[in-house]
Write a structure and sequence with these properties.
Strand order of the largest sheet: 1-2-3
Helix content: 10-25%
Number of domains: 1
Radius of gyration: 13 Å
Number of strands: 3
């Protein structure tokens, strides 16, 4: 286990598209669409496996 817990990472099989300030994620496995507001889109973009689960410091 990593010192600060596992680092969030995006799941494979999601296609990201931004439109009118919102982030749309298309799940190719489940064939569903998730609509993220700007804050959730930022969190999604930070889920690269490089940041700890405590993203508060990163977002500030």
């Amino acid at each position: 286990m990593e010192p600060n817990g596992p680092r969030p990472r995006r799941r494979v099989g999601l296609i990201r598209q931004e439109l009118r300030g919102q982030t749309y994620l298309y799940d190719t496995r489940e064939e569903t669409v998730h609509i993220l507001n700007p804050t959730a889109g930022l969190v999604w973009d930070l889920c690269t496996g490089e940041h700890t689960p405590d993203l508060r410091r990163t977002v500030r």
